[in-house]
Amino acid sequence: MNILAIGAHPDDLEISCAGTLAKMKQAGHEVVLCHASTGDKGHYVIPADELIVIRKGEAQQAGELIGCPVISLGLRDGEISSEDESVKTTFIDLIRSVQPDMVITHAPNDYMPDHVAVSKLVFDTTFTATLPAFSDRFPIAKKVPALYYMDNLSGIDFQPTIYVDVTDTFETKLRMLRKHQSQLTWLKEHDHVDILGFVETLGKMRGIQAGCTYAEGFIQHMAWTRPNAIRFPV
């Protein structure tokens, strides 16, 4: 299967679903990691133009740990809009270039505007990418892919419909997250959180719910035209 995971920022996938992505890659699926924004505003000290380069490198290093390509859509923090037609076209071109069978992204009720905007954009464009009148850079998407929402930060008002046991890939998840050193600093200073401990706590909580040591939770988007009978590929 072709699997596309789309986060708003370069570290979002590592926080919320990297254990599952590592398992999918191990199972032989094609997995592409994408972040919509360059993450240019996520630091108190490093200027935006320097931070873009740093965060791109961190994301590439994290993807290399599981042998996955990493794509940046080149948008800017706080400027992702689900109403911007040029942004919609960027997402449509992404979907068409990857031709995914499954897409994983943020839940609609995640905690900050960029995450929510990406969730809406993914929902919208995974459908419109199948329509020939939108963009002509790539062949139209052959199908409306299955859509899954990854856990929102801290799991508030998020009740998974699917749990993935990531006990055997949890250390890989942490290694991927540690590549984002600029964000370990930022999240500690801006949000007063040790994100490595945060991720471990949520992983243990989902693991308790799922009957294993560590788990990641997902909600399957249920709507007509989505291939809801698809088997979660891990």
UniProtKB/TrEMBL annotation:
Pfam families: PIG-L. Gene3D superfamilies: LmbE-like. Signal peptide: none annotated. Transmembrane segments: none annotated. PANTHER family: N-ACETYLGLUCOSAMINYL-PHOSPHATIDYLINOSITOL DE-N-ACETYLASE, N-ACETYLGLUCOSAMINYL-PHOSPHATIDYLINOSITOL DE-N-ACETYLASE-RELATED. This is PIG-L family deacetylase. The lineage of its organism: Bacteria, Bacillati, Bacillota, Bacilli, Bacillales.
